[in-house]
Amino acid sequence: MLADDFFVRFVRIFQAEAQTLLSHADTLPHLADPRLAPIEMVRYLSRWLAAPGVDDAYGSRAQRLMLLTVAKTLPWRGTRKALATMLELYSGEPAIISESGGVFDQGRAPDGARWVRLEVTSTGPLAEEDFVELVRDEVPAHIGVEIVVAGQQIWPVDGSAASAGRRER
Known about the structure:
It comes from Ruania alkalisoli. This is Phage tail protein. The chain is an alpha+beta fold. The chain has 2 domains: about 30-75; about 85-100 and about 115-169, no CATH class. It has 6 helices and 4 strands; from the N terminus they run ααααββαββα. A hairpin with a 2-residue loop joins β3 (about 145-150) and β4. α2 (about 40-50) packs parallel to α3 (about 60-75) and α3 (about 60-75) packs antiparallel against α4. It starts with a helix and ends in a 5-residue tail after the last helix.
């Protein structure tokens, strides 16, 4: 049978397929680990977790760090802790967060609109519009947002606190 050229080529097709399947089976335990997974899997996991800004434009190291950070902050999403972590990841510098929130006894919460002011020195690798979108996705919808980058307010564009709470898309 080994003398028959057709048979040998035919069997090699199945050997190549089997080798591919075995190779995938050997790497299966590592596919969900962002430090070891192929970069395509990192992008897939990032989309699955709705990680903002993770795309091909960043290097593989940055994409892995973004995925790990998003996964780490997911249980805290919408809180000051998660927002600070995300801002520092993208800006590369500490973020200053001022807010009206807090924990109050029943009936003791202050009146008025809720707000948060975020100050960073840079938007990092993101364009200002993308950075604003990142922040607006992370802050709860009922909170007014002010974003200041390098001393200049970039959101809301008109500078009014009232428009900071609107969620127009």
